[in-house]
């Protein structure tokens, strides 16, 4: 396993290194970013006086709304330096375009090679890429570049198509999947229906994106348990976003996603944009290092998690990112209880005879949050509805509304045409607020 030297250095050395890179970034932004020039001027900030990581609190955070509304003003290079255009998935708003230079693609490859090495990857591996590499999507491209940088092999199969996935496994004998974890259950189901001995293949591990594998205490989610019960391959969780162009990936000890301090500075902020303690959840706020096209300074991702600073058993000393508890904008206040969608998913994944589901949230007539679970089910009944609600009450103390529909109808909602990700959560609250205005 190849570990970057900075990731095993003493914390003081990591901090000193990052502060040097931060000063380089501030100089770059002051020279090339219209958005950050305006910020420095508006708040009378002298970038040359930001010398330590602690000084970052003197700069107001950057929000997703600002990135959406002033997208062009964040670009720091002329058009003839842009070699690839990428857009975010737009899960919580309008998609944002990211301009990638040659250097940015090299950085992306380096990041992903570090992350794959973290997940016990080596040049001897062959990766089966089960995410899209087209549709202006960063993830598939990042993995392709990272595997190439790692010196391993890769097969670009794309998402879906269980028959083609199994044909690829049988023909080329890959060692590792790169996939959304719930798709592994579809792959297993297809294998069982077609007499494929899936437990005796070349596959030993899966690098998983898009869905949580662990709860905040690092125990496996119901989804991860279901996969492991059927197919005992090693599952590695990874967290990343287009905005940060950096991934946080678990090592074999499964105690959080590892920070690559040469690529990104990370803060964890409370509701008032103040740093939280290690035993408190905070919003992941990032400052990118080494990005040329659209570098970001104190960008609030909207994702909330815990962080850990003690050294990992793998030898890395840099910070680790805990599993994401939820997204701030997706927080639900339901009958006096604060919830995030992953808590609902974990319960639904644990109930037999629910084939698939979508969680919808809307504002009711008295102005409070309401939850509707649209569940795909072959044999709905009042007794089954009561059983589902009892599960929710036992775990969360509250029970949402339930609507039974066909598996096909739910799949049409979950996989809308043109979407790059499966849809599990639909938030109608903004729509209803707009309608009342």
Number of domains: 2
Report strand order across the widest sheet: 4-3-5-6-7-8
Q: What is the number of helices?
A: 12
CATH class of the largest domain: Alpha Beta
Question: What fold name stands as the CATH topology of the largest domain?
Answer: Rossmann fold
Alpha-carbon distance between the termini? Answer: 57 Å
Q: What level of helicity do the residues show? A: 25-40%
What general outline do the C-alpha atoms trace?
globular
What is the fourth-level CATH superfamily of the largest domain? ANL, N-terminal domain
Mean pLDDT: 90
Profile the largest sheet. 6 strands, mixed
What is the count of β-strands?
21
Class computed from helices, strands and strand pairing: alpha/beta
Q: Identify the CATH architecture of the largest domain.
A: 3-Layer(aba) Sandwich
**Could you name the ranges where pLDDT drops below 50 across 5 or more consecutive residues?**
432-437
Radius of gyration from CA coordinates: 22 Å
Which percent band covers the strand fraction?
Answer: 15-25%
Q: Which helices and strands occur, and which strands form pairs?
A:
Layout: H1 11-32, H2 34-42, H3 64-69, E1 84-87, E2 97-100, H4 102-118, E3 126-129, H5 138-150, E4 153-156, H6 162-172, E5 176-179, H7 181-193, E6 205-208, H8 222-230, E7 234-241, E8 246-249, E9 257-258, E10 264-269, E11 282-288, E12 299-305, E13 307-308, E14 320-321, E15 326-327, E16 332-334, E17 337-339, H9 341-348, E18 356-363, E19 369-376, H10 382-396, E20 401-405, H11 407-414, E21 425-427, H12 429-436
Parallel strand pairs: 3-4, 3-5, 5-6, 6-7, 18-21, 19-20
Antiparallel strand pairs: 1-2, 7-8, 9-14, 10-11, 11-12, 12-15, 13-14, 16-17, 18-19
């Amino acid at each position: 396993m190849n570990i970057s030297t900075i990731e095993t250095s003493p914390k003081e050395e990591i901090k000193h290194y990052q502060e040097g890179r931060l000063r380089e970034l501030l100089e770059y932004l002051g020279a090339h970013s219209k958005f950050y020039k305006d910020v420095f001027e508006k708040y009378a900030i002298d970038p040359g006086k930001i010398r330590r990581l602690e000084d970052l609190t003197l700069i107001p955070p950057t929000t997703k709304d600002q990135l959406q509304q002033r997208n062009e003003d964040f670009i720091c290079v002329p058009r003839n330096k842009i070699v690839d255009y990428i857009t975010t998935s737009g899960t919580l708003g309008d998609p944002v375009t990211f301009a990638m230079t040659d250097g940015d693609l090299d950085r992306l490859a380096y990041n992903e090679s570090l992350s794959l090495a973290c997940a016990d990857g080596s040049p001897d591996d062959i990766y089966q890429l089960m995410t899209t590499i087209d549709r202006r999507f960063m993830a598939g491209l990042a993995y392709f570049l990272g595997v190439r940088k790692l010196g391993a092999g890769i097969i670009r199969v794309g998402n879906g198509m269980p028959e083609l996935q199994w044909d690829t496994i049988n023909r080329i004998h890959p060692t590792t999947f790169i996939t959304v974890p719930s798709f592994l259950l579809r792959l297993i189901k297809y294998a069982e229906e077609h007499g494929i001995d899936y437990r005796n293949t070349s596959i030993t591990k899966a690098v998983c994106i898009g869905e949580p594998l662990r709860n905040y205490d690092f125990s496996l989610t119901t989804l991860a348990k279901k996969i492991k019960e059927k197919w005992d391959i090693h599952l590695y969780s990874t967290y990343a976003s287009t905005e940060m162009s950096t991934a946080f990936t678990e090592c074999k000890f499964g105690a959080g996603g590892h920070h690559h301090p040469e690529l990104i500075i990370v803060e964890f902020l409370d509701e008032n944009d103040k740093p939280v303690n290690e035993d408190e959840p905070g919003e992941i706020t990032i400052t990118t290092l080494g990005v040329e096209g659209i570098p970001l300074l104190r960008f609030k991702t909207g994702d909330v998690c815990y962080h850990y600073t003690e050294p990992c058993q793998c030898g890395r000393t840099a910070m680790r990112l805990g599993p994401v508890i939820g997204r701030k904008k997706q927080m639900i206040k339901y009958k006096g209880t604060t919830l995030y969608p992953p808590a609902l998913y974990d319960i639904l994944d644990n109930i037999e005879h629910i084939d698939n589901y979508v969680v919808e949230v809307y504002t009711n007539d008295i102005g409070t949050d309401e939850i509707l679970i649209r569940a795909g089910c072959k044999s709905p009944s009042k007794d089954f509805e009561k059983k589902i609600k009892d599960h929710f009450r036992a775990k969360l103390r509250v029970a949402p509304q339930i609507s039974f529909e066909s598996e096909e109808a739910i799949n049409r909602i979950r996989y809308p045409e043109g979407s790059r990700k499966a849809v599990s959560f639909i938030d109608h609250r903004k729509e209803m607020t707009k309608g009342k205005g």
